[in-house]
Amino acid sequence: MNVGVIGTGHVGLVTCASLAAFGHRVVGTDQDAEKIASLRSGRLPFHEPGLNGLTRDGVVAGRLSYTCDPEAAIESAEAVFISVGTPPRASGEANLVAVESAARTVARHARGPCVVIEKSTVPTGTARHLRRTLERERADRATRLEVVSNPEFLREGKAVGDALRPDRILVGAESEWGFETMRRLYAPLLAQGTPMIETNIATAELAKHACNAFLALKVSFANALSRLCERAGADVVSVVDVMGADPRIGRGHLDAGLGYGGSCFTKDLLAFDRLSSLLGYDFALLREIGKLNREATLTAFEKVREALWNLEDKRIAVLGLAFKPGTDDVRFSPGLELASMLLEAGAEVAGYDPEAATNAKAEVPDLLISPSPYDALAGAHCVVVSTEWDVIRNLDWATARDLMSYPVVVDGRNVVDPCVMAELGFAYLPMGRPAIL
Ligand code: UDX
Prior knowledge:
Blueprint (H helix, E strand, L loop, with lengths): L1 E5 L3 H12 L3 E5 L3 H8 L10 H10 L3 E4 L2 H5 L4 E4 L14 H13 L4 E5 L7 H12 L7 E5 L9 H6 L4 E4 L3 H10 L1 H5 L4 E4 L1 H32 L3 H9 L18 H16 L5 H25 L6 E5 L14 H11 L3 E5 L4 H7 L4 E2 L3 H5 L4 E4 L4 H4 L3 H7 L4 E4 L6 H6 L3 E3 L8
Parallel strand pairs: 1-2, 1-4, 2-3, 4-5, 5-6, 7-8, 9-10, 9-12, 10-11, 12-13, 13-14
Helix pairs in contact: 1-3, 5-6, 10-12, 10-13, 12-13, 13-14
The site of uridine-5'-diphosphate-xylopyranose has 19 residues, from helix 10 and helix 12.
């Protein structure tokens, strides 16, 4: 099939590459000419393992191309994905200006029957607005344009795997033609047994928010348990292992730490909360999830302050600035948030991250960037493990101790071996686990 993709960011580009891998002819378009120029020269605008190879395969096979001209991406397409940004407004509501603009573009340039697919996470009810925009802006009244919801379940750092081997494909449509078109788009996945869950559009839109809210709830539940464990002398890692052994609970997303970051959880919780109140339901639990998340990062800050007394003129190494390993994305990153709090408190902060350093420096100019973890550790009075990259998990702690001014470790992701800390004489402060003072 001919497929158009509007928006070539984290979601759009993975959508382009995976659909080309399924054998479709895909044209990706973006209003950011620099991004398109970069893609055309084979350079991705962000780090995502495996995406370089997958996009290159599509381009070499002649199934994937990029253009700044939306008409070229839409005119012969039977399906157009809208994968533009939906950032939170000040109110928390999702900003859907880019979504409306994309729909208008499709309506003006579609030359034949075309399914307009919501790939970006949007509040339920968006499809109604999209349908009206398509009606009003349609160039040719005879062209059949229909909205479909097909939310993405991509994790940054694992997006290629999540796109090529998804747990399920979720499709919300209003006609058999809509469902049939989506079955054709994902035929290779259906052939390998991936289930396609078919619902009405509002259901699909809402289910996406529900998934992210529940994943964030699991993380915040684990972080709340950490606060209790710290007071009870219990070990939250063992508690969640016990919980996760029950298949009704599942071990995933129960790792306590600095809290969740990334553009999805925070943004989707805000949008879901706003949407609920606009629908007349006070979904108070959603706000508690956010509160517990902020509490997790604040707790790590308090641990540093407790360990160092005054923070002025102290040097603190923050190892990990991306919101999670495997990405250079620093949006809502707890590690970067903590670095900012420490700078605010008068400390000197040396940050290290294998991929996200440039993005972090752009966000927090006062942050010192170290080319290696050991440079950050030199002379440090404390080190915070904030993103669990392998290079940070596998640090040589004996060398670290010799480099540091004080042997103090705040393990924001509970990835350092407490026995090693004890042997080397570190003061070790994990999250929700017994500390070594
Ligand atoms: C998430 C959802 O997983 C994905 O399905 C959705 O499409 C987009 O949002 P993503 O935000 O990329 O994906 O990453 P995820 O792996 O879910 O982690 C989100 C944040 O939670 C990260 O900051 C991570 O460090 C944190 N996290 C995750 C925890 O603190 N503990 C955990 O156990 C898991």
